[in-house]
């Protein structure tokens, strides 16, 4: 393992000790799941080649969905895609009439990332890149800048909402030319769906509409077209925690969200969109439950049903659903070794514990909680990080004494009894 910056090391350790996925340094700890990664890389390459893709990444609580989704986003950035991502929540969902869908879009666009801005907040730089390129082209050709902008944005005008989208981008260019920071801020605010009413937007910009609940999916299509015009390879949209749709109490609200997912899936399968991909993370219940999950919506069930020939250990990575396979004990051993190296800043001479401590820790976990220690490894990893932290801060402590005293608990679904903890959300 290469040397690791102390800043990255501290961020990784801090995240893992809290049981969450680190935002940086995933390459230092990634193990296994090579086939799943290869499948998503093919999807990303197809998006970059003016195609489209949609995947449902399904796994148990603590099985590594969020880690996998973050890894996919980083791969997409390396392939020169723009990524946006958000977690669904009670106030953020794919379809709504009370602002929740607009809230999901706004959160996703606030998290917009590019290869040079992987931490998010990349919308201003993407728009600025588009404007700068238009100005340069106009100067080279001796043409008015506005004519160049109109020509470049012409493909968007045929799309739903494309006229106002283009008007906002032109308003940003005018603000760029005039040094009008207020107008630039208003244009970015509109693109982030932060105007609550059409009246407020009309006072700040030459538009008659805003990005609202009913426009979210179509605006993602506009956004994918725009980032390609701006010089990027495409747009990848990543939504996690789709179990929040499964928990909606209103059957009508659930079905409307599933209907929107069906529309997205149909567009992708029929090739109706270009340069756009979706990766949606959820639990097996969200997918399979015939009362509340995606399988409760017949049209989705028929499209998402597993390949009947993929049995007895055979896999099929070409369908829309990608089931995260459990980490093998060998994978987990490599993962623990990687975490040990992160603590040591990549220096083997600074390892806190020897190799035998890794196997002893795994044997201890296996005795305490059985196979769940690698099937849903979040709490196991958290316990190991805490073990190393104590050893690091208490020199001279024998790791053998500590391993006998730790007790990683089986991963429990945070919403195991969905019927008792349903989120009461109205349309």
Distance between the termini: 51 Å
Rg computed from alpha carbons, rounded to a whole number of angstroms: 24 Å
Query: Which term fits the overall shape?
Result: globular
Question: What fraction strand?
Answer: 5-15%
Cross-sheet strand order for the largest sheet: 2-3-4-1-5
Oligomer: single chain
Number of helices: 19
Query: What is the tally of beta strands?
Result: 5
Descriptive notes:
The chain is α/β, with parallel strands linked by helices and 427 residues long. It is built from 19 helices and five strands. The termini are far apart. Strands 2-3-4-1-5 form a five-stranded parallel sheet, with helices on both faces.
Secondary structure: elements and pairs:
Blueprint: H1 6-17, H2 34-48, E1 52-58, H3 65-78, E2 82-87, H4 100-110, H5 123-141, H6 145-153, H7 162-178, H8 181-191, H9 198-204, H10 216-229, E3 235-240, H11 243-246, H12 251-269, E4 276-282, H13 284-288, H14 298-304, E5 321-323, H15 329-343, H16 355-369, H17 372-375, H18 378-393, H19 399-403
Parallel strand pairs: 1-4, 1-5, 2-3, 3-4
Helix pairs in contact: 2-3, 5-6, 7-8, 15-16, 15-18
